[in-house]
Amino acid sequence: MSGGPGDGNRSGAGGTHGAGRGRTGAAGDPDVVVVGAGLVGPVAALYLARRGERVLLLDKRADPRGRPGAGGRSLTVMLSARGWRVLDELGLGDTVRSFAVPLHGRCAHLRDGTSHTTPYSRDGRPIWSVERERLHRLLLDAAEAAPGVAVRFRRRVRSVDLDEPALLVEEETGPRKVVCRHVLGCDGAHSVARAALVARGARQRVRPLRLAYQEIALDGGWLDRRTMHYWPTGDALFGAFPVPSGRFSGCLFQRLDGPAPSYAAVDAGRDPLELFTADFPEPAAAIADLGAQLAAAPRATVPLVRCDRWVWRDTFALLGDACHAMAPFMGHGMNCAFEDARTLASCLDAEGGWGPALAAYEERRRADADAISELSYRHYDTMTRPPREGADEAAALLRERLVGLFPDRFVPLYERCAFSEEGYASVRQADRHFNDLVEALLRRYGAGLATVSDSRLRAYTPPARPAFPVEGYGCF
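== Putative FAD-dependent oxidoreductase ==
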């Protein structure tokens, strides 16, 4: 947009960062450079623009708008309460609602031909499926229209100087040094911005989930559009989400290694269509061009990222996948990243300067990011296995009954994550306490406790904060 911050100063051919520049910057320099214009980068830029900051938003890729499929990412993303809070604060919520699809639960299609639907909430509240490309275009348009924000594509950040701070940016015409006051790294799991922090002693762990996925489109005319559908086998997973066009966006997850079904088996010569049909006969019979899609659809891996430091003094912070890329199975990666941006903005408003604000941001977010990352990884086991299969059936039934009998005390894990803004770490802790209670009750009274009358189960369940151990409470 016109009137935004400049791209900084031209460097020499060597493109090295200069030293000794004042932190106030020149008139044409941006206040903040946001590295990465995926989903969280524009959100961070919008929050900063509301504070009057001059923001330069950079991305190494070409502008994806107007080129369907240019993003190369999952066709759908899930929006829950945390994401809606951010979009509403930025004035974009109503626009997104116009093309979001409500989902009231997930439907497991079992091998015996039966199905089992699990509601996302006990009171019928939905989560929302949104086409990623459409949401991305909206966020980019909003950022570009915001006063003081400049969006630049085909700008590859080569390095970040955390102290000056400044960035070495590769453009089509050569290297450019961009000087600013603060840098936000929103450049994903393979973050160049994070590398600058690692060079200063931060410890990172980047590893691939031993799974890969392919996106498969299907008509899905026989499927209920009010739910997400999945076909669990224990070894592989196929899921399908409705999109506004009336079709469904499907995703096949398989192991990278090991025996069939796996991508290693396909690479060794097994027919991918044969493997898919054996595991997922129902959708296989309904997708006319399945063989062609399996042959053409690229495989994508899922990187997992942990970093023990997110900020540097008052100059630098990481957000989103750059500091906590997670497995996609809870549908919270984007929601968590949006919450990062909102929390950072809140800390900037509350604290006396960027240094205290960045420290407060990291303190508030790291434990929550660790928690939802763990929960997301764990949820894959839930999604790949039919309901209650592979778990203690008495424990599963007892959990369901306790949730029904004590709705204010016991809230299902997914519901707490999706329909509240409670910290993920608090949600995980509450879930651990719930599981501990269930185990203690079964240990004391046996599996028969899961099928006793409501009144007896109420009597055997200790108060919310028992002053004595479960083992000594009541009798069966």
